[in-house]
Structures are given as structure tokens and as C-alpha cells.
Amino acid sequence: MQRILDKIDEYLFRMYDGLLKELKQTECYRDDSNEVERLENKYPVIRKILEGEDIHKELILSIEVQNAIKRYVELRINMLDDLQIKYYLRGIP
Questions:
Q1: How many CB atoms lie within 10 A of CB 55?
Q2: How far apart are CA 17 and CA 54, in angstroms?
Q3: pTM for this entry
């Protein structure tokens, strides 16, 4: 049974990797990915929050940073939606 699960894991990993490669070829996904990277670089607090570095201290975020976080989340959701659509089109709901 474990061998079957390992083969399924390998298959799903390869499919995921292939789908990401396909998505990176699309202009829309590339634009979203580049914008996500730009936001992470311009506002390092995004990465700190996601990695849990500042989880034990209170942060006061400017309106600009709050809007950047909101935009970041929107872009990441778009990217995940694109991936889900690719899975769906491959026959994996």
C-alpha cells in the first residue's frame, strides 16, 4: 500500500510541477508572480508576517502597507485559482 501512495505522491508532484511550468508561460500568471515578488521586496513585513516572525508582537501598519498586503493576498488567490483551473482542465477536481 505504501508503494502505491509513494507513486501517487510522485505523480501528483510531477503534475504540480508541470502545471506550474505551464502557468509560468502565461503572461497573466507571470505578471501576478512578478507583482507578488515586487510587493514582498518593497514591503518586507509581508514576508515576516507570513513566516510568523512578528507573531508575538503588536504591529501598527500604515494604510499603504495594509493596501499592499490586501493586494498581495488578491494576487496570491488569483495565482491559486489559475492553478486550480489547470488541475480541473486536467481532470483533477
A1: 9
A2: 31
A3: 0.80
Residue type, 49: I
**How far is it, in rounded angstroms, from Cα 72 to Cα 24?**
18
Task: Specify the DSSP class assigned to residue 90.
Answer: T
CA–CA gap between residue 93 and residue 26 (Å, rounded): 21
Residue 23 and residue 20: Cα distance in Å, rounded? Answer: 5
Where on the phi/psi map is residue 87: left (φ > 0), alpha (ψ -120 to 50), or beta? alpha
30-65 pLDDT, tens per residue?
999 999 999 999 999 999 888 887 677 788 899 999
Q: Outline where 1-93 has alpha helix (H).
A: 2-24, 27-42, 44-51, 63-89
